[in-house]
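Researcher: Re-running this chain for the archive, since the previous output was lost when a drive failed. Same request as before.
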Amino acid sequence: MNDPVLLFTSLSSKVALFQSVQKQAKFFSPKARVIGADSNPSCEGRVKIDHFCQTPKTKGWNTEDLLTFCKKYKISHIIPSRDGELVLWARNKEALKEIGIDVMVSSEQALKRCQDKYEFSKSWPQECLLQPIPTFTEPEEISDQELVVKERRGSGS
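Model: Regenerated structure tokens:
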């Protein structure tokens, strides 16, 4: 078995998270290598890690580009770290698996449900003790006087 090579995507300034992943990878396999990747060659994290590579912006990748990139760096595992790229990795998970690369990401269907506040709310099982905040798409559906208005999609809290 080859030593694991993990690709930690969208490094940006997530140095503490990167270091935690690196520590756990080394615990699993002392010769493991974690490569931080980002489309910004000047990202803050670059100077604080041992291995860095620049990647295209997420929208610029296609399946063939991903496969070529991963083969070039001998990647064995991929850890996406930004919400905006999760669907890309989910869509390519099977193609990467076929060449021996594990992508740590949920299914595209699960991601889309979780990234859509309305769909997430509607898909929540009614028998659960804890329920999400009631979510509506039409003003006529709302009966409460106190409201919080949020974008349907996006990470704003």
